[in-house]
């Protein structure tokens, strides 16, 4: 069994993880008011970064991918418990439910999670 870091994600070398191209790069896009174009950036290791660093993106991907795995098990369980409920309706309920949990995910990350579930079940 592998040791886990503080975020409950197995320790793996960063280069060994291939994040899919469709996984969001900026889960919390900022909208800044004003008449001139602006962007939200953070200073990370002496560089301004818009969106996630690659390490942050990998960490968020691993977290979301783990959630997909857990939700697959949950949906399969609910399909057995509620055989009269169609899969489209069940996935709709899951979508509403996960967004209400208060998890610190961006809406585009929730969208990605639901896309993975729809690919699996539809």
Q: Structural class of the secondary structure composition?
A: mainly alpha
Distance between the termini: 33 Å
Strand order of the largest sheet: 1-2
Low-confidence stretches: 1-9
Mean pLDDT: 87
Order of helices and strands: EEHHH
Count, helices: 3
Radius of gyration: 17 Å
Largest sheet at a glance? 2 strands, antiparallel
Strand content: under 5%
Number of strands: 2
Question: What number of domains?
Answer: 1
Shape designation:
elongated
Word description of this protein:
There is one protein chain. By secondary structure, this protein is mainly α. The protein has one domain. Helix content is 47%, strand content 5%. The chain has three helices and two strands. The chain has helices spanning 54-81, 87-100, 107-121; strands at residues 42-44, 47-49. Strands 1-2 form a two-stranded antiparallel sheet. It is elongated. The model is unreliable at 1-9 (pLDDT under 50).
Keywords:
mainly alpha; 122 residues; 5% strand; single chain; two-stranded antiparallel ribbon; disordered N terminus; 3 helices
Give the structure's gist in a few sentences.
This protein is mainly alpha-helical.
SSE inventory with pairings:
Elements: E1 42-44, E2 47-49, H1 54-81, H2 87-100, H3 107-121
Helix pairs in contact: 1-2, 1-3, 2-3
């Amino acid at each position: 069994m592998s040791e886990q870091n503080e975020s409950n994600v197995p320790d793996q070398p960063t280069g060994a993880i291939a994040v899919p191209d469709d996984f969001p790069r900026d889960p919390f896009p900022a909208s800044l008011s004003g008449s001139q174009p602006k962007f939200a950036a953070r200073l990370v290791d002496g560089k301004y970064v818009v969106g996630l660093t690659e390490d942050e993106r990998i960490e968020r991907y691993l977290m979301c991918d783990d959630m997909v795995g857990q939700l697959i098990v949950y949906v399969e369980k609910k399909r057995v418990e509620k055989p009269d409920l169609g899969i489209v309706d069940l996935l709709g309920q899951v979508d509403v439910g996960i967004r209400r949990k208060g998890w610190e995910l961006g809406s585009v990350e929730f969208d990605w999670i639901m896309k993975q579930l729809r690919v699996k079940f539809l």
